[in-house]
Amino acid sequence: MTSTEANPVVTVPPHASRIRTFHPRRGRMTGRQLDALDRLWSAYGLTVADDPAAAPVDLAALFGRRAPIVLEIGSGMGDATAAMAAADPGRDYLAVEVHTPGIANLLGLVERLGLGNVRVARGDALDLVRALPDGSLDAVHVFFPDPWPKSRHHKRRIISPTHVALLRSRLTPGGTLHCATDWAEYAESMRETLTADPGLVDVHGGYAPRPAHRPVTKFERRALTAGRPVFDLVHRRA
């Protein structure tokens, strides 16, 4: 497996106070997760930090090669990311998450499966995106983000016009923004927001068929068991 410089830090310019799009979560880690975090973070981890001396992250240096990059926003426990990366060795997967047990779990999967094409970032996904060069991503995946169901919290949703414009700017022409949610109202809001972006093209003309490459996670199974349909949306940068 390819290792990288010990615990690199992505630095981003100072910003005015921003509304967070995620709930900071705490969770107890297992001994296996603690061990994985301790041993593997220096090789596969990336800290997203706020620093005035900003520079775009060098993705080729991060992965040790030049290959198409997939950004996984909110990778959770990492099972889906690991499965997709294992099935897609020609592309590199950069997963960003704030939940430390999930980060540690994904690191363990990276080692167990021998995944040289995965790196794991800890921090705010939008700060990471701001630190990436324009046109540097082949795909962005936003699977089951927090729906922020209360009306007064809708401003916290990651799929909003301003955030979508930022994500689109980091896609290479022809690159795809793929979103999925089990929250029907949020799905419709996503569809309207993505369709309204002038630089994106709706690949399927509405909700997309469930793609075979997106693994079914425990979270999705719970949603389906509860009777909540899952909506996929795939848009391409023009």
From TrEMBL:
Substrate binds at K150, D182, T217, K218, F219, E220. CDD domains: AdoMet_MTases (cd02440). Its EC number is 2.1.1.33. It catalyses: guanosine(46) in tRNA + S-adenosyl-L-methionine = N(7)-methylguanosine(46) in tRNA + S-adenosyl-L-homocysteine. Pathway: tRNA modification; N(7)-methylguanine-tRNA biosynthesis. InterPro entries: SAM-dependent_MTases_sf, tRNA_(Gua-N-7)_MeTrfase_Trmb, tRNA_methyltr_TrmB_bact. One of its GO terms (cellular component) is tRNA methyltransferase complex. Coiled coil: none annotated. S-adenosyl-L-methionine binds at E72, E97, D124, D146. It holds the Pfam family Methyltransf_4. GO terms for molecular function: tRNA (guanine(46)-N7)-methyltransferase activity. Keywords: Methyltransferase, S-adenosyl-L-methionine, Transferase, tRNA processing. The keyword Glycoprotein does not apply. Belongs to the class I-like SAM-binding methyltransferase superfamily. TrmB family. PANTHER family: 3-DEOXY-D-MANNO-OCTULOSONIC-ACID TRANSFERASE/TRNA GUANINE-N 7 - -METHYLTRANSFERASE, PENTACOTRIPEPTIDE-REPEAT REGION OF PRORP DOMAIN-CONTAINING PROTEIN. Catalyzes the formation of N(7)-methylguanine at position 46 (m7G46) in tRNA. This is tRNA (guanine-N(7)-)-methyltransferase.
